[in-house]
Amino acid sequence: MKRTLATLLLATLAVLCAAGSAAAAGSLLIKNGTILTVTRGTIARGDILVINGIIARIGKNIAAPPGVPVIDAAGRYVLPGLIDSHTHIALAGTNEGSEAITPEADVGAVINADDTALFTALTGGVTMAHTMHGSANPIGGPNVVLKMKWGRPSEELVVSEAWRTLKFALGENVKQSSRTIVAGGPPPRYPQTRMGTNAILRREFLRAQNYMAEWDRYEKLKGSKNPPKTLLPPRRDLRLEVLADLLKGKMVARCHDYQATEALEFMGLAKEFGFKIAALEHAWEAYKIADELAAAKIGISVFADSWAYKMEAAEGIAYDAGYCSKKGVLVSINSDSNERIRRLFNDAAKTMKYGGLSEDEALRLVTINPALQLGVDKIVGSLEVGKQADIAIFNEHPMSAYTRCDMTIIDGDVYFDRAGIIAAREEAAKKGGRP
Amino acid sequence: MPTRNRFALWSVLGALCVLPAAAASDVGPTYAIRNVRIVPVTGPVIEKGTLIIRDGLIESLGAVDKTAVPEDAEIIEAEGLTAYPGLISGHTNLLLEDPAAGMGQRGAAGTPTLPAVAAQRGAGTAGETAAGTPELMLLTQLRPAKSTMDGFLKAGFTTVLIAPNRGIIQGQSAVVNLNGLETGPMVLLTPAALHVNFTTNRGGYPSSLMGTIAYIRQSFLDADHYANAKAVYGKNLKGMKRPVHDPFLEALIPYVRDKKPVIFQCNNAEDIKRALKIIEEFKLSGILSQANEAWRAEAALKASRAKLLVTLDFRPPNGSFYTSQGEDLRKKAEAEIYPSNPAALAKAGIAFSLTTFGLTDAAAALRNVRTAIKLGLPEDVALRALTLVPAQTLGLDRQVGSLEPGKIANVILTKGALFDEKTQVERVFVDGVLWKF
Amino acid sequence: MNRRARMLLPVILLAAAAAATGFAAPQKTIVIANARIVPVVGPDLASGTIVIKDGKIADIGAGISVPPGADIVDGKGLTAFPGMIDGYSFLGLQEITGVNATVDNRETGRINPQVWAIEALRYDSMHIPIARSNGITAAIVAPTGGLISGRSVLIKLDGWTNREMVVKNPAALQIEFPDIRGGRGGGSGFGQRGGGAAAQDATRLIAELKDLFASARAYEKRKLYAQKNLSVALPDFDETSEFLLPVLKGEVAIMILVHADRDIQAAIKFVKDEGLKAVFYGAEQGWKVAADLKDSGIPVIISQLYAAPPVWDDGYDQLFMNAVRLARAGVKIAFSSGSATAAKDLPYHAAKAAAFGLDRREALKAVTISPAEIFGVAGEMGSLEKGKAANIVLADGDLLEQRTNVKAVFIDGKPCDMSNKYTELLDKFKKR
Q: What is the pLDDT of residue A12?
């Protein structure tokens, strides 16, 4: 009995000591804010305790453990850090346009953590972004999901829990509609039509199947009783390897598409070759095929209303996101821009007018929905105990046009603090005499 | 003397006169540099010493009262001067046929590639250089020019690694002593290393950095596969088709299989990490050059065995973290942050060489070393980074990199300590011959 | 049909009738009753009535009598605002921005005072109904490009021909100085200069303009002299001079697109030297010379706020704070969409500035009465006042909020058709 008590006391002491020393990094207590959890309702005047980058408690009247800094959120709104499901930031190059099929080109190899767009994202309450190939290729290559940890080395930004995604693109950009053919110049790159685009995709999937078959045959021969003396493994082809991963289900497709027809045809290819489409990007005509999308459980990642810049965007109506959402399609609003990324919440709010979404539904489009599309919904996208502390604090409700982001927190560390910036400006002004 | 003997003597003398000049200059002169302060690098400083050079090598060195001067030595009084090993720059692109040429131009001695292979390697249309020419030997491109060599030597550099400068897999470099205008006698080591640069093949594949990285990896994979195929074929010779001869892949085999050194040009901290990943994947013997942001990749560098050739060109790279956040930080980057790269590495205990890579004027090298020293680079670390360390990195430390008997007589005599503001390089000996400016 | 729709039925029927008849038919008197009223000039009314007669606001207030025979629009739960006015747009000059055949806002060449936006204005552009149905009732439509882009026009967003839409033509002669911003929504981010103008500054361009003005004056002198003396030959027709003269005579205002602080100061001096009636557009570094701007009396059209902040040292919120600081310094500001495809977002730029400290009522003024004042039409529009044009918006909330639904729009007293490309396509596919 005595030993058990002693052990218990020692254990408690150990936990308290650990908690004390661990309270230094990635821990804080947000107090008295209106907490928009997204998945578990709203708490007026609530607190969130973060320990070591994880949300430890959400409730009222939480006391701050020793050493944990307190952030007063009275009168403000506390929400999950926003997630941008389609960007091209923080990369040293986004398109391998010299050939049509380039899945060997992996954006994960060219992360540029020095991109000021990371900071821009933070000023808009964005804590995570899916940064991708552009749309120069029918098959571009793997993308990567990053946390917006401005100032940290690139390896610390990568979200390893996210699904591996493969960028596809259809339509005008891929068939190089805006390029002028110069007489006597190099021949245009195949494909130059949507038919050719579908054909090249089919060809590459068939090639990938061939590649997988070659390796299967090799493995069989190698493992056989009398493998031939001249047995050689097939040449490792980085390009086909990535496609094979898609067909094996180790990756999901994210496909840039505008027209309804090209979306439907791509969905057909997915069915034919057995791969999964996580979402269609831009999908300006998704409202025309909302039923098909909902039935196939394919999400869309779209603008609110940035349209009419290309022919294929000429029927992109502002109701797209809201209407599809009501029809049961998993919709996220994205920015695809390192300027628009800081007003994702304004764009989400537009679905309240164009689509009749409620405040809560609109907020989902830039929080839990993109998380679901990226496979990170277990760790981010809402404020729940056990999730990573990616949190934004706004001065008004995020769906109000009068709101602004005041603070952005990632893994319990403050990465953007408007008050701090204003104070630093005032200091500098005193010294330098600038207004 | 009897007439017959005199005739024989004159015949012999006459014969000697018609012997080809090369024969007469094959044996180098003998020098005794006297009363000079000697900084051997691998031993203690000798305040007043004598250094004996004979036939291209250092014969001996020591305190002036303990070192005999040979009878045949030409005496060079060097009171007030200091003798250092000739400096070594582990990476330069100068002295090439066309150092400013970018992609898409074929050098006169450009290596032809077989059409089928060229297509495989992502070559552009006829007339464009392929993204990769590993089979290109630097020596075929070397164009020694007196003014450039004078520039190096005046700045104290007697030995340089000259590397090809075009494309992604650029070719194989050579290390040369700057002893004259003929290529043959210059050579110290060829090939020295394979050179890879994280650039792109504008107008062709790969046109993006991620494409480049895939291209590099696929090339090494293919070289490995090719070596396998050749080995298996070699064992059998019957019952399988022979692998198609590919000069591109042939050139890569020593680096992928036999672990000869591969030098990656790293334009920023991320390039360092990218290079280290590739080095790890293919278990290469890796060297990182330029490395102007090495201090930002400290952890990765400490965890690897890759060696560093750090440039003395302190210009911030494009899109640097420190030049895109306002004027104050940008000025600090140029004046302090980047020039502190060597000091930061020294503080972190990471070994490195210093090179003239990127500098078109070698005199800037010593200026920049002084800046680095002002910002905290210890002088002895700086000296070793310009002498012994590059020699070791390139596997030449038994021949150059310090003043020791038996080593090649690359010696510089300076008025003033090497890293002083007003220092002049007064005399330079390369391969034991006094250079005439 | 629900109660709300029933109450708005008169509006819908009126709109249909107006649409059907084409030309402005004599209208019945319309009364908006029981609405909250935000006149913008003068105090708000918690509940009031607006009487629309002959295209104008005949009466407005609480407890005023409803004339017999009027069509009643029940504004219960709704707020009446003045229609918004866009200080700078490309409405009617762009359909699909990436398809050159549908873009008419940028003529080739640098000096084009003879180019007039009204003459290319596509009044049935799909973007006009979209903007209108979000409460925008008037807009400046401007040509762009070069040094002198041409003449802009102030239109109302309703009319069966381009000429019918004119409120004021010309609105201004457009002049463009070097830009410092990156692209809208496409974004380069900090430290990017737009349009290849980085090397220039306004001083050279001002010198060039002064030369052109001098030439124009000289031209006019010679023309007048020759007109009086038949023996003297008329000068050769000089198009540029002809169309610059009205500006020099003060008949036509100029709008200078100017951005960097030094350029703004140079522009102020230029305007003063030449005695011109001027408006500035952009002035993104205006906050640095706010006192000069205030003293000059030159108003500023704030450029669309969907732009990346150009200069790191000026702060991530520099474009928003610019509007705030200019307003606080007493500079008259108005907002603009800078677009055709996103013209409907005019109110959200105003709200964005309010998010960063601009008084919300000032923000609303900056999309209503202020642009009206700036373009000299404050006697006709910009606020809900007796005698002004009945440009009225009925909305179910704050007009500057994205979530707000605009229920009805009146222009010159006529109820507008609220359908647009968005609603047409939605309705079509709802029927699947």
A: 47
Contacting A residues, span 381-410, partner chain C, CB-CB under 8 Å: 395-396, 399-404
Mark which residues 104-133 of B lie under 8 Å from A by CB.
Answer: 125
How far apart are the C-alpha atoms of A61 and A80, rounded to whole Å?
20
Sign of the Cα torsion A396, A399, A405, A408 reads positive
Same domain, C22 and C90: no
What's residue A434's pLDDT? Answer: 52
In a domain, residue C195? The reply is: yes
The per-residue pLDDT of chain B, averaged, comes to 89
Q: Which two tokens stand for residue B139?
A: 């020596």
Domain that holds residue C269: 84-381
Q: What is the pLDDT of residue C187?
A: 38
Q: How far is C411 from chain A (nearest CA, A)?
A: 22
Domain, as residue range, for B180: 87-400
Structure tokens at A110: 């060219």
Rounded Cα–Cα distance for residues B203 and B185 (Å): 39
**Rounded mean pLDDT of chain A?**
93
Q: How many whole angstroms separate alpha carbon B223 and alpha carbon B255? A: 9
Q: What is the mean pLDDT of residues B128-157?
A: 88
Cβ distance B325 to A116 less than 8 Å, yes or no, reads: yes
Say if residue C324 is in the same domain as residue C367: yes
B319 part of contact set with chain C, CB < 8 Å: no
Residues (pLDDT < 70) of chain C are 1-26, 182-200
pLDDT number for residue A23: 38
Number of H helices, E strands in chain C: 11, 16
Instruction: Specify whether B187 is located in the same domain as B269.
Output: yes
Q: Is C393 inside a domain boundary?
A: no
pTM of the model: 0.91
Is residue B19 pLDDT above 70, yes or no? Answer: no
Tokens 């809201």 sit on residue:
A322
Report if residue C392 sits inside a domain: no
Contacts of A46 (CB under 8 A, 6+ apart): A32, A33, A34, A35, A58, A59, A60, A78
Residues B305 and B419 grouped into a single domain? no
Is C400 contained in some domain? no
* CB pair distance less than 8 Å for C99 and A311: yes
B331 touches chain C (CB under 8 A): no
Distance from CA of A61 to the nearest CA of C (A): 29
At residue B62 the predicted structure's pLDDT band, cuts being 50, 70 and 90, is very high
pLDDT of residue A428 exceeding 60: yes
- Both C221 and C123 in one domain: the answer is yes
Does residue B277 sit in the same domain as residue B418?
Answer: no
In tens, the pLDDT along A168-202 reads: 999 999 998 887 777 887 788 999 999 999 999 99
Both B25 and B137 in a single domain? no
Chains near C (3 or more Cβ pairs under 8 Å) = A, B
User: Which chain A residues in 221-280 lie under 8 Å from chain C, judged by CB atoms?
Assistant: none
Whether residues B252 and B263 share a domain: the answer is yes
How many domains, in total, are found in chain B?
2
Is CATH 3.40.47.10 the right assignment for the domain spanning A82-381? Answer: no
Spatial neighbors of C116 by CB under 8 A, at least 6 apart, are C143, C150, C151, C153, C169, C170
Q: What are the structure tokens assigned to A240, written together? A: 């086909």
Q: Mean pLDDT throughout B9-22?
A: 50
Q: Are residues C205 and C347 in the same domain?
A: yes
Q: Are residues C190 and B327, on separate chains, in Cβ contact within 8 Å?
A: no
Residues C110 and C159 in one domain: yes
Number of domains in chain C: 2
Q: Is the pLDDT of residue B108 over 50?
A: no
- Based on the domain organization, do B200 and B302 belong to the same domain? yes
> What integer is the mean pLDDT of A275-290?
98
Domain co-membership, B308 together with B162: yes
CB contact under 8 A, A352 and C403: yes
pLDDT value of position A4: 55
pLDDT of the residue at B114: 32
Task: Tell whether the model's pLDDT for residue A109 goes beyond 70.
Answer: yes
What is the bridge-based pairing of β-strands C333-335 and C392-395?
unpaired
SS3 B57: strand
